[in-house]
Amino acid sequence: MEPRISIVTVAVRDLDRAAAFYEAMGLRRHRIRDGVAFFQMGGIIFALFPRESAEPDAGVTFGAAPSAVYLAYNTRSEAEVGAVLAQAEKAGGRIVKPAGRAFWGGWYGYFADTEGHVWEVAHNPDFPIDANGNIALPA
Amino acid sequence: MEPRISIVTVAVRDLDRAAAFYEAMGLRRHRIRDGVAFFQMGGIIFALFPRESAEPDAGVTFGAAPSAVYLAYNTRSEAEVGAVLAQAEKAGGRIVKPAGRAFWGGWYGYFADTEGHVWEVAHNPDFPIDANGNIALPA
Fold first, then answer.
1. Cis ω on the peptide bond leading into residue B138 (within 30° of 0)?
2. CB of B67 within 8 A of CB of B117?
3. Could you give the CA distance from residue A63 to residue A13 in angstroms, rounded to a whole number?
4. Smallest CA–CA distance from A38 into chain B, residue
5. Residues B40-64: what's their mean pLDDT?
């Protein structure tokens, strides 16, 4: 296994509602196939796929939200953290933890999407972000 | 929100077991802090974080595995799909769906990690992968 994740999929109960939420977050939906929403996220793909399609495809029944596999969006400044959380609330999500100081020194909060899955929004100066949005662990 | 995911975290019950699994999958653990396992995955970070730390941090209780947020590893060839599934089984995971033809035309299967979270392993010639491992939706 090379060190990569190709696609992050959220198996959703309401595809249209979830797609509208992520579009309102500023992401652009690629309409290359019905019944799935794809978003190009730098070098990876983010997908929304109905649970009723995803579960028989994998042959599993997914657990409830919030999911123990969760996502983080790292910002370029502390001020951006609150702005992204506010945008998520306006888009139909929910602020789970308002912006505040993290135990590891940064500034962060959490929102839940329309399916209840959480995203951490964080400014962590120890993990630099380049112009293309790529993030790196300290050497 | 710019189109990126910075960190994908799996909240785990057994950090050492999960970290050993992903190391046996060929990933290199960065030891920059105790109580968390980080892996650099191209331009994003993959993290394993104990559930007992992650849940109070976000202020939520995560649902059971398998998670409705799940990951895909896309391969460069069909033959690689079976090889990655076999590697996952040898590393202490479980093959959930053996390699076979996908309804969308590619070749794919699923494995579960030591926490029960599923990864799709897929060869999809419609989504090209560059030398750095970045994947792209068709234009």
1. no
2. yes
3. 12
4. B137
5. 97
> Which run of H or of E encompasses A5?
none
Of B38, B69, B110, the CB nearest to A69: B69
CB contact under 8 A, B127 and A6: yes
In order of their start, the domains of chain A are 1-51 (3.10.180.10), 69-129 (3.10.180.10)
Query: Under a CB-based contact definition with an 8 Å cutoff, are residues A121 and A18 in contact?
Result: no
pTM recorded for the entire structure: 0.96
Interchain pair A66, B63: CB under 8 A: yes
Residue A32 confidence (pLDDT) above 90:
no
Q: C-alpha angle with apex A57: A53 to A61, nearest 5 degrees?
A: 80
Q: Across chain A, what does the average pLDDT equal? A: 97
Residues of A in contact with B97 (CB under 8 A): 58-59
Helix (H, G, I), strand (E, B) or coil at A113: coil
Partner residue facing A42 (CB), from B4, B73, B129: B4
* Tokens found for residue A49: 């796929």
In this complex, the residue of A11, A103, A130 whose CB is nearest that of residue B70 is A11
Complex prediction ipTM: 0.96
